Protein backbone atom coordinates (compact mmCIF):
# COMPACT_ATOMS: atom_id res chain seq x y z
CA UNK A 1 0.00 0.00 0.00
CA UNK A 2 3.12 2.16 -0.17
CA UNK A 3 1.97 4.14 -3.22
CA UNK A 4 -1.33 5.06 -1.57
CA UNK A 5 0.51 6.23 1.54
CA UNK A 6 2.69 8.39 -0.70
CA UNK A 7 -0.36 9.82 -2.47
CA UNK A 8 -2.03 10.65 0.84
CA UNK A 9 1.07 12.26 2.23
CA UNK A 10 1.43 14.46 -0.84
CA UNK A 11 -2.26 15.41 -0.86
CA UNK A 12 -1.96 16.59 2.74
CA UNK A 13 0.90 18.93 1.84
CA UNK A 14 0.01 22.63 1.49
CA UNK A 15 -0.55 23.62 -2.13
CA UNK A 16 0.17 20.07 -3.26
CA UNK A 17 -0.60 20.78 -6.92
CA UNK A 18 1.84 23.65 -7.08
CA UNK A 19 4.67 22.22 -5.01
CA UNK A 20 4.38 18.42 -5.32
CA UNK A 21 2.61 17.87 -8.65
CA UNK A 22 5.27 15.71 -10.35
CA UNK A 23 5.75 13.47 -7.33
CA UNK A 24 1.99 13.17 -6.91
CA UNK A 25 1.54 12.16 -10.54
CA UNK A 26 4.30 9.58 -10.25
CA UNK A 27 2.77 8.04 -7.12
CA UNK A 28 -0.68 7.95 -8.75
CA UNK A 29 0.68 6.34 -11.92
CA UNK A 30 2.51 3.69 -9.88
CA UNK A 31 -0.62 2.90 -7.85
CA UNK A 32 -2.79 2.58 -10.95
CA UNK A 33 -0.26 0.39 -12.76
CA UNK A 34 -0.07 -1.99 -9.80
CA UNK A 35 -3.87 -2.21 -9.45
CA UNK A 36 -4.98 -2.16 -13.08
CA UNK A 37 -6.34 -5.72 -13.02
CA UNK A 38 -8.89 -6.38 -10.23
CA UNK A 39 -8.06 -10.09 -10.26
CA UNK A 40 -4.55 -9.47 -8.95
CA UNK A 41 -4.85 -6.00 -7.45
CA UNK A 42 -2.69 -5.74 -4.31
CA UNK A 43 -5.09 -3.16 -2.92
CA UNK A 44 -8.12 -5.40 -3.33
CA UNK A 45 -6.30 -8.48 -2.02
CA UNK A 46 -5.37 -6.52 1.11
CA UNK A 47 -8.74 -6.64 2.87
CA UNK A 48 -8.07 -4.03 5.56
CA UNK A 49 -9.59 -0.59 4.94
CA UNK A 50 -7.44 2.16 3.48
CA UNK A 51 -7.11 5.80 4.42
CA UNK A 52 -9.47 7.19 1.75
CA UNK A 53 -10.10 10.57 3.34
CA UNK A 54 -7.38 12.71 1.69
CA UNK A 55 -8.39 11.63 -1.79
CA UNK A 56 -12.12 12.20 -1.40
CA UNK A 57 -11.62 15.48 0.39
CA UNK A 58 -9.78 16.98 -2.58
CA UNK A 59 -12.68 16.18 -4.93
CA UNK A 60 -14.61 18.79 -3.00
CA UNK A 61 -12.15 21.55 -3.89
CA UNK A 62 -12.40 23.61 -7.06
CA UNK A 63 -8.65 23.67 -7.61
CA UNK A 64 -8.47 19.89 -7.84
CA UNK A 65 -11.61 19.65 -9.98
CA UNK A 66 -9.83 21.87 -12.54
CA UNK A 67 -6.54 20.00 -12.30
CA UNK A 68 -5.12 17.75 -15.00
CA UNK A 69 -4.67 15.19 -12.21
CA UNK A 70 -8.43 14.94 -11.63
CA UNK A 71 -8.92 11.98 -13.99
CA UNK A 72 -6.08 9.85 -12.57
CA UNK A 73 -7.23 10.66 -9.03
CA UNK A 74 -10.73 9.50 -9.94
CA UNK A 75 -9.19 6.29 -11.23
CA UNK A 76 -7.52 5.81 -7.86
CA UNK A 77 -10.89 6.33 -6.17
CA UNK A 78 -12.45 3.75 -8.49
CA UNK A 79 -9.84 1.21 -7.40
CA UNK A 80 -10.38 2.01 -3.71
CA UNK A 81 -14.15 1.64 -4.08
CA UNK A 82 -13.79 -1.95 -5.25
CA UNK A 83 -13.22 -2.84 -1.62
CA UNK A 84 -16.23 -3.16 0.69
CA UNK A 85 -14.21 -2.06 3.71
CA UNK A 86 -13.49 1.23 1.94
CA UNK A 87 -17.06 1.76 0.77
CA UNK A 88 -18.18 1.48 4.38
CA UNK A 89 -15.93 4.44 5.27
CA UNK A 90 -17.56 6.81 2.78
CA UNK A 91 -19.17 9.84 4.39
CA UNK A 92 -21.96 11.97 2.94
CA UNK A 93 -19.52 14.75 2.09
CA UNK A 94 -17.46 12.36 -0.02
CA UNK A 95 -20.51 11.31 -2.04
CA UNK A 96 -21.52 14.94 -2.49
CA UNK A 97 -18.05 15.89 -3.71
CA UNK A 98 -18.52 13.71 -6.81
CA UNK A 99 -21.80 15.24 -7.95
CA UNK A 100 -20.28 18.47 -9.37
CA UNK A 101 -17.81 16.35 -11.33
CA UNK A 102 -20.80 14.63 -12.96
CA UNK A 103 -22.99 17.68 -13.45
CA UNK A 104 -20.26 20.03 -14.71
CA UNK A 105 -17.42 17.75 -15.77
CA UNK A 106 -14.02 19.10 -16.74
CA UNK A 107 -14.15 16.80 -19.77
CA UNK A 108 -15.58 13.49 -20.99
CA UNK A 109 -12.88 11.45 -19.27
CA UNK A 110 -13.58 13.11 -15.92
CA UNK A 111 -17.29 12.39 -16.25
CA UNK A 112 -16.57 8.80 -17.25
CA UNK A 113 -14.24 8.11 -14.33
CA UNK A 114 -16.56 9.83 -11.84
CA UNK A 115 -19.36 7.54 -13.06
CA UNK A 116 -17.07 4.56 -12.54
CA UNK A 117 -16.44 5.67 -8.96
CA UNK A 118 -20.20 5.93 -8.41
CA UNK A 119 -20.69 2.46 -9.90
CA UNK A 120 -18.39 0.90 -7.30
CA UNK A 121 -19.34 3.19 -4.43
CA UNK A 122 -23.06 2.46 -4.81
CA UNK A 123 -22.69 -1.23 -4.05
CA UNK A 124 -23.24 0.13 -0.53
CA UNK A 125 -26.91 0.99 0.07
CA UNK A 126 -26.15 3.97 2.32
CA UNK A 127 -24.09 5.57 -0.43
CA UNK A 128 -27.01 5.11 -2.83
CA UNK A 129 -29.30 6.95 -0.42
CA UNK A 130 -26.95 9.90 -0.10
CA UNK A 131 -26.32 9.99 -3.84
CA UNK A 132 -29.96 10.04 -4.97
CA UNK A 133 -31.18 12.31 -2.17
CA UNK A 134 -28.73 15.00 -3.24
CA UNK A 135 -29.28 15.10 -6.98
CA UNK A 136 -26.72 12.51 -8.02
CA UNK A 137 -29.13 10.58 -10.24
CA UNK A 138 -30.17 13.79 -12.04
CA UNK A 139 -26.51 14.60 -12.67
CA UNK A 140 -25.83 11.10 -13.97
CA UNK A 141 -28.81 10.66 -16.27
CA UNK A 142 -27.80 13.06 -19.11
CA UNK A 143 -24.48 11.26 -19.40
CA UNK A 144 -26.29 8.15 -20.64
CA UNK A 145 -27.15 10.10 -23.80
CA UNK A 146 -23.58 11.23 -24.46
CA UNK A 147 -22.15 10.90 -27.96
CA UNK A 148 -19.16 9.21 -26.32
CA UNK A 149 -19.93 5.49 -26.15
CA UNK A 150 -17.50 4.84 -23.31
CA UNK A 151 -19.17 7.53 -21.21
CA UNK A 152 -22.57 6.07 -22.03
CA UNK A 153 -21.42 2.69 -20.78
CA UNK A 154 -19.94 4.07 -17.57
CA UNK A 155 -23.04 6.17 -16.83
CA UNK A 156 -25.30 3.17 -17.43
CA UNK A 157 -23.10 1.04 -15.20
CA UNK A 158 -23.53 3.60 -12.42
CA UNK A 159 -27.30 3.63 -12.98
CA UNK A 160 -27.33 -0.14 -12.86
CA UNK A 161 -25.53 -0.05 -9.52
CA UNK A 162 -27.87 2.65 -8.16
CA UNK A 163 -30.97 0.79 -9.37
CA UNK A 164 -30.04 -2.35 -7.47
CA UNK A 165 -31.37 -0.64 -4.34
CA UNK A 166 -35.07 0.09 -3.85
CA UNK A 167 -34.45 3.75 -3.08
CA UNK A 168 -32.36 4.04 -6.22
CA UNK A 169 -35.10 2.51 -8.37
CA UNK A 170 -37.67 4.92 -7.01
CA UNK A 171 -35.42 7.92 -7.60
CA UNK A 172 -34.64 6.88 -11.17
CA UNK A 173 -38.31 6.32 -11.92
CA UNK A 174 -39.20 9.76 -10.60
CA UNK A 175 -36.66 11.59 -12.80
CA UNK A 176 -37.67 9.85 -16.02
CA UNK A 177 -34.72 7.50 -16.27
CA UNK A 178 -36.82 4.54 -17.41
CA UNK A 179 -37.39 5.87 -20.92
CA UNK A 180 -33.77 7.00 -21.27
CA UNK A 181 -32.43 3.58 -20.34
CA UNK A 182 -34.93 1.67 -22.49
CA UNK A 183 -33.92 3.73 -25.51
CA UNK A 184 -30.42 2.26 -25.26
CA UNK A 185 -31.47 -1.38 -25.42
CA UNK A 186 -31.14 -1.15 -29.20
CA UNK A 187 -27.64 0.34 -29.14
CA UNK A 188 -25.11 -1.07 -31.59
CA UNK A 189 -22.52 -1.23 -28.82
CA UNK A 190 -22.34 -4.35 -26.68
CA UNK A 191 -21.25 -2.72 -23.41
CA UNK A 192 -24.05 -0.14 -23.66
CA UNK A 193 -26.65 -2.87 -24.29
CA UNK A 194 -25.30 -5.08 -21.51
CA UNK A 195 -25.52 -2.30 -18.95
CA UNK A 196 -28.83 -0.97 -20.23
CA UNK A 197 -30.47 -4.39 -19.94
CA UNK A 198 -28.98 -4.76 -16.46
CA UNK A 199 -30.51 -1.45 -15.41
CA UNK A 200 -33.89 -2.32 -16.97
CA UNK A 201 -33.80 -5.65 -15.15
CA UNK A 202 -33.29 -3.84 -11.85
CA UNK A 203 -35.93 -1.21 -12.63
CA UNK A 204 -38.44 -3.93 -13.49
CA UNK A 205 -38.36 -5.02 -9.84
CA UNK A 206 -40.23 -1.77 -9.11
CA UNK A 207 -43.95 -2.35 -9.68
CA UNK A 208 -44.56 1.31 -10.53
CA UNK A 209 -41.97 1.17 -13.31
CA UNK A 210 -43.56 -1.72 -15.23
CA UNK A 211 -45.97 0.50 -17.14
CA UNK A 212 -43.22 3.01 -17.82
CA UNK A 213 -40.96 0.32 -19.26
CA UNK A 214 -43.76 -0.93 -21.50
CA UNK A 215 -44.69 2.58 -22.66
CA UNK A 216 -41.03 3.32 -23.40
CA UNK A 217 -40.83 0.36 -25.78
CA UNK A 218 -39.00 -1.82 -23.32
CA UNK A 219 -40.75 -4.99 -24.41
CA UNK A 220 -39.65 -4.51 -27.99
CA UNK A 221 -36.13 -3.80 -26.82
CA UNK A 222 -35.91 -6.82 -24.50
CA UNK A 223 -37.40 -9.59 -26.64
CA UNK A 224 -34.62 -9.58 -29.30
CA UNK A 225 -32.04 -9.82 -26.52
CA UNK A 226 -33.37 -13.29 -25.67
CA UNK A 227 -31.43 -14.39 -28.76
CA UNK A 228 -28.20 -12.75 -27.59
CA UNK A 229 -25.05 -14.86 -27.77
CA UNK A 230 -24.07 -13.35 -24.41
CA UNK A 231 -25.53 -15.55 -21.68
CA UNK A 232 -25.70 -12.74 -19.12
CA UNK A 233 -27.52 -10.37 -21.50
CA UNK A 234 -29.99 -13.12 -22.38
CA UNK A 235 -30.60 -13.97 -18.72
CA UNK A 236 -31.11 -10.32 -17.71
CA UNK A 237 -33.56 -9.78 -20.57
CA UNK A 238 -35.48 -12.92 -19.59
CA UNK A 239 -35.60 -11.82 -15.96
CA UNK A 240 -36.87 -8.37 -16.91
CA UNK A 241 -39.57 -9.86 -19.12
CA UNK A 242 -40.60 -12.18 -16.32
CA UNK A 243 -40.99 -9.19 -14.02
CA UNK A 244 -42.91 -7.28 -16.69
CA UNK A 245 -45.32 -10.16 -17.09
CA UNK A 246 -46.70 -9.28 -13.65
CA UNK A 247 -48.43 -6.35 -15.33
CA UNK A 248 -51.56 -7.34 -17.27
CA UNK A 249 -50.97 -4.98 -20.20
CA UNK A 250 -47.41 -6.21 -20.62
CA UNK A 251 -48.59 -9.81 -20.39
CA UNK A 252 -51.12 -9.17 -23.12
CA UNK A 253 -48.53 -7.46 -25.33
CA UNK A 254 -46.10 -10.34 -24.92
CA UNK A 255 -48.81 -12.88 -25.70
CA UNK A 256 -49.82 -10.94 -28.81
CA UNK A 257 -46.20 -10.75 -29.94
CA UNK A 258 -45.74 -14.47 -29.40
CA UNK A 259 -48.92 -15.23 -31.33
CA UNK A 260 -47.91 -12.96 -34.18
CA UNK A 261 -44.53 -14.64 -34.54
CA UNK A 262 -45.98 -18.12 -34.76
CA UNK A 263 -45.91 -19.96 -38.07
From TrEMBL:
It comes from Heterosigma akashiwo. Pfam families: Arm. InterPro entries: ARM-like, ARM-type_fold, Armadillo, RSP14. This is Armadillo repeat-containing protein 8. Signal peptide: none annotated. ARM repeats lie at residues 176-218, 217-259.
Amino acid sequence: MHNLDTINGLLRAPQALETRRDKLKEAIDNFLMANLDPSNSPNLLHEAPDDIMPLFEVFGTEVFRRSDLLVPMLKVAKVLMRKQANRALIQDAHVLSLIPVLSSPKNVMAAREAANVVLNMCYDSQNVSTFVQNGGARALLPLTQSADIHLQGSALGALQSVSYQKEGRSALRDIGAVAAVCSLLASEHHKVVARAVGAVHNLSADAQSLRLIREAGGLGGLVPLLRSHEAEVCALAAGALQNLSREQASRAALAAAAGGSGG
